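Bug #77: duplicate submission created two jobs. Keeping one. Sequence:
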Amino acid sequence: MRYRELGRSGLSVSEIGYGAWGIGESAWIGATEDESVRALNKAIDLGVNFIDTARGYGESERIVGRVVRERAAAGDEVRVATKVPPKNRVWPAPDGLDPAETYPGAHIRESLETSLSTSGLDHFDVLQFHVWSDEWVGRGDWLETITELKQEGKIGLFGVSINDHQPDNALALVRSGAVDSVQVIYNIFDQAPADALLPACEEHGVGVIVRVALDEGGLTGRIAAGTTFPEGDWRNRYFRDDRPAQVEEHVAAIVADLGIAPDEIAETALRFVLSSPAVSTVIPGMRTVRNVERNTALSDGRALTADQLAVLAKHRWQRNFYG
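Kept job's structure:
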């Protein structure tokens, strides 16, 4: 496993991190706690030292906390990031909201205390807001609360999870110096963060946590016309109507242009993200030991070539399947 610094924070994180939404037994159907625990432990065995969870991920914080505490007792240091949901429970944050509606200081503190109690941890290495709007820079009491929580040792760093497909909606925050890390959707289809956000993060020393590198499964080569998911699984909405057929067509074009095998698309997608020096870690969801072994093996220092990146630059596909 290779490691990168999270911005200029001094925190060293594995370039392959662990996205723990899928193990929360909520929106993703099929996860079991026993398998999730095995997957988490295998990831740590293979060098993963950064896990991303959230208050809104069902049982995820509890399961992550259980494993991290057990591993800490054995001498393993694992960094954990969690997220505070907006008080108004609106995802993503629309324009025009006052930060007093979304992240008042008392709500931030209460959510963190709940996360600490649920996980059994005494602090989080990164506390993130689960939605963000640049309209909140310089407004509200959220920054004072974050500063206090850092001073109290309950959190190490502060970050935000940027609204889906809105990378420029955190540029003012990045430039303000008030944030340590941002979490953003960045993948072969949505390359927009590379235009302005990633350069700004490099300039200002802000860490970048990449989510949805595999487009919720779209960039694995396993989504095709007619693909369905178990009843109650949120991906039935994400990949509804003719969207699986659209994904299949776009993935086939990438495979053909690169001259790779269809089963190499997931590897290529993760290597694409890691090709950016601004990226600190990528956090694919890994619900099985097999997924862990496959994804962590990519931290081998083997980069995509300039020619491959030039080909992939032509495969931007701007759309929002969350809508």
